Amino acid sequence: MTRVVAAIMVKDGKVLICQRTKHQSMPLKWEFPGGKIEIGEQPRDALRRELDEELGINAEVSDEVSRIVHTYANGGTVELRFFVVRGFAGTLENRIFRDIQWVSPADLPKYDFLAADEPLVRDLAGGKLL
User: CB of 68 within 8 A of CB of 84?
Assistant: First the structure.
């Protein structure tokens, strides 16, 4: 099972979502920023590292608010751990995505998210977790 961390970045009542490029697996799908936990790495440390690599920021990682295990049709299983990020140092910079957007939680279902993220999208759109 692949262990993954992701950020629910919150600013002015909106959350940051990111769109994969057409060259990545599951192209053009939307997701929350983050990535794989490396061997021996703590989840919060992994998320700080990923957000630095993907967005050029030093994130203030807060509480874990959701954990989802999802098995894709190809048989791959991921465990996603979502953490709230309400602050960061540095200037947000799109380093790897096709697009990044700040959106209202209620608008999240309008985007084509990765299947593994869909339960979280529903919860956020329903006013839960934040």
Answer: no
Residue range(s) defining the domain that contains residue 28: 2-125
CB 5 within 8 A of CB 16: no
Its pTM surpasses 0.70: yes
Tell me how many domains the chain contains: 1
Distances (CA, A) of 24 to 4, 30, 125: 16, 12, 26
Per-residue pLDDT tens for 17-53?
999 999 999 999 999 999 999 999 999 999 999 999 9
Helix, coil or strand: residue 88? strand
Cα separation of 16 and 103, whole Å?
A: 6
* Ramachandran sector of residue 96 (left: φ over 0; alpha: ψ -120 to 50; beta: rest): alpha
Note the Cα 127 to chain centre separation in Å: 18
State the CATH number of the domain containing residue 96. 3.90.79.10
The token pair that represents 71 in the structure block: 């098995």
Residue that the structure tokens 């936990």 belong to = 37
Closest CA to 85 of 123, 115, 42, 55: 55
